[in-house]
């Protein structure tokens, strides 16, 4: 085992070998092959090229060196083309702070049965007078920068669950094709993360329409990992065990505390007030987020969509059961 795999469990190392074609005997050679390609893109400023950084791109592309380099180039090109998004790209930026404290994104402390980190988005909590979509996207990208430092997550990946309960047509009208394309480019095409599934829950008809609109921007592999569950939580539980989920999704865990992840990033000086004094992460030189902060911090009550869980099926007081009782697509 090379020092680049230090801290990984034997099970995860074996998983990386079987699923990602990771071979510790030629790891440095694989990394150098990607690094040697940098000279072919003089138009891009590669701000970080150390072994550990390049390794995450190789893992995201199953050690296909050419594909890993393309992803690495797109990562930095995306940041060059969207400079305003990455100015003051840290947790104490005012826009990112507001999004984090409003629960964008939510991050569960425990992982699923496959070792994947579960991210949550409660769409109805988007107060458009308080948070721009761009700041929410920045908070999500920053959170991924923090999480991807964990080598286990580089290998096991992530799950995203979006609860569309009470998300209004007016809110949806702000999701224009241009900003949705920006999000897809940032998450699908320019970030070294393995997404095992994106799960829509309680989506109204106009979210179906939006999904149809963005389909051309999605890779086939991404489409196969998007599930539209409607109000049927049984189909969600077939893919993510209830023991891994909070009660909002019919799980056995307590309701999700919206301030959990914000407290993790902002540290012990986190405050519910609008002004903060604590400076935390710079995404280009980020350290591991301390899970102990999540356990030590006191819960913060937060507005959330109101749902009733009945016999494994999520119902809303203002709408009937959805016709979408099965996932639209299945994993590879």
UniProtKB/TrEMBL annotation:
SMART domains listed in its UniProt record: CRAL_TRIO_N, SEC14
Subcellular localization, as worded in the UniProt entry: Cytoplasmic vesicle, Clathrin-coated vesicle; Early endosome membrane; Golgi apparatus, trans-Golgi network membrane
Topology of the protein relative to the lipid bilayer: Peripheral membrane protein
Coiled coil: none
The entry's keywords: Cytoplasmic vesicle, Endosome, Golgi apparatus, Lipid-binding, Membrane
Keyword Nucleus: no
InterPro entries: CRAL-TRIO_dom, CRAL-TRIO_dom_sf, CRAL/TRIO_N_dom, CRAL/TRIO_N_dom_sf
Protein name, entry field: Clavesin-1
One of the protein's GO biological processes: lysosome organization
Disordered: region residues: 287-332
């Amino acid at each position: 085992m090379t020092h680049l795999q230090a801290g990984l469990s034997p099970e995860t190392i074996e998983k990386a070998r079987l699923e990602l074609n990771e071979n510790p005997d030629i790891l440095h050679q694989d990394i150098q092959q990607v690094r040697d390609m940098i000279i072919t893109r003089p138009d891009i400023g590669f701000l970080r090229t150390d072994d550990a950084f390049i390794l995450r791109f190789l893992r995201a592309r199953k050690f296909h060196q050419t594909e890993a380099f393309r992803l690495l180039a797109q990562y930095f090109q995306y940041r060059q083309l969207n400079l305003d998004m990455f100015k003051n790209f840290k947790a104490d930026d005012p826009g990112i702070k507001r999004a984090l404290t409003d629960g964008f994104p939510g991050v569960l402390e425990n992982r699923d049965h496959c070792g994947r980190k579960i991210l949550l988005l409660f769409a109805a909590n988007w107060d458009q007078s308080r948070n721009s979509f761009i700041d929410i996207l920045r908070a999500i990208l920053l959170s991924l920068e923090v999480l991807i430092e964990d080598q286990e997550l580089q290998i096991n990946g992530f799950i995203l669950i979006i609860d569309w309960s009470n998300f209004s047509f007016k809110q949806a009208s702000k999701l224009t094709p241009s900003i949705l394309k920006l999000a897809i480019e940032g998450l699908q095409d320019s970030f070294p993360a393995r997404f095992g599934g994106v799960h829509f829950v309680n989506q109204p008809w106009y979210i179906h329409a939006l999904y149809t609109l963005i389909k051309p921007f999605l890779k086939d592999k991404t489409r196969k990992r998007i599930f539209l569950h409607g109000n049927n939580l049984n189909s969600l539980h077939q893919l993510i065990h209830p023991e891994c989920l909070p009660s909002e999704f019919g799980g056995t865990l307590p309701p999700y505390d919206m301030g959990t992840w914000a407290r993790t990033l902002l540290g012990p000086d986190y405050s519910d007030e609008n002004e903060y004094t604590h400076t935390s992460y710079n995404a280009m030189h980020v350290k591991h987020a301390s899970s102990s902060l999540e356990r030590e911090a006191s819960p913060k009550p937060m507005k959330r969509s109101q749902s009733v869980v009945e016999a494994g099926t999520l119902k809303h007081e203002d709408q009937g059961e959805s016709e979408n009782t099965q996932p639209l697509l299945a994993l590879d």
